[in-house]
């Protein structure tokens, strides 16, 4: 508002981060909660931004929140580092899926070999959406036209659980702006899905009950040299967030 912007879409501000696209705010903030804030400005000329951060209501992440946050942040960092012209956006998505899965195996939440787990789309139990989308005059730019802009000619959505929500399936080009927004969510109906059961360590997962949903989202411009994170000034490291909240 200070810069004469409006919101680019209905903000998601919630302690129930596992409810994707929730636009209701009926939950009082409790000290142990995480507050997920997905809110972006739209400039006077109509250009959209799309940013998500996840904050500990108390000002300090709990040890379990910290562990999962670091896994999500590492997945996001690895995905951003892989961005350059010519790279398939789907491979950026898979880079994040792999990093996330590897982290969850290391924490003892998922059982198995990370590469096998991603091949079998098991990561989608905790990360059930795509890594991001095109950003422009609309927040999901051109999606009102279906996948015409998002999918290269001859490509169509798959039905595979780990890929079907991918909103962009093209090689990246200089000048594109994409979002990179991996997350971790405990969605009850997905956790109950039989296909995932053999791969989840329930006893271990129960220790992470205070992590309902974490997402970290930045807007990234593809440049001739690689990429530029346009939203990098908004803190996302645990130490920085806790210092600001102090
Ligand atoms: Mn987004």
Description:
- The chain has 246 residues and is of the alpha+beta class.
- It has one domain: Alpha-Beta Complex (Creatine Amidinohydrolase).
- It is built from 6 helices and 10 strands; from the N terminus they run E-E-E-E-E-H-H-H-E-E-H-H-E-E-E-H.
- The strands form 4 sheets. The protein has a 3-stranded antiparallel sheet, with no helix packed on it. Strands 6-9-10 form a 3-stranded antiparallel sheet. Strands 1-4 form a two-stranded antiparallel sheet.
- It is globular and about 50 Å long.
- It starts with 5 loop residues before the first strand and ends with a helix.
- It binds manganese (II) ion.
- Manganese (II) ion (MN) binds at residues 50, 132-133, 179, 181, 217.
Give structural attributes.
binds manganese (II) ion, about 250 residues, Creatine Amidinohydrolase, alpha+beta, about 15% strand
A few lines on this structure:
This protein is α+β, with helices and mostly antiparallel strands. It contains 6 helices and 10 strands; from the N terminus they run βββββαααββααβββα. It has one domain: Creatine Amidinohydrolase.
How many angstroms does the end-to-end distance come to? 25 Å
Main sheet: strands, sense, barrel: 3 strands, antiparallel
- Please identify which CATH superfamily we are dealing with: Creatinase/methionine aminopeptidase superfamily
CATH architecture: Alpha-Beta Complex
This entry's quaternary arrangement is: single chain
Radius of gyration: 18 Å
Ligand catalogue:
manganese (II) ion
Question: Helix tally?
Answer: 6
Write the layout of secondary structure elements.
Layout: E1 6-7, E2 12-14, E3 34-38, E4 41-42, E5 52-56, H1 63-81, H2 89-106, H3 114-119, E6 177-180, E7 183-185, H4 188-191, H5 202-206, E8 213-215, E9 218-223, E10 226-229, H6 238-245
Antiparallel strand pairs: 1-4, 2-3, 3-5, 6-9, 7-8, 9-10
Helix pairs in contact: 1-2
Manganese (II) ion (MN) binds at residues 50, 132-133, 179, 181, 217.
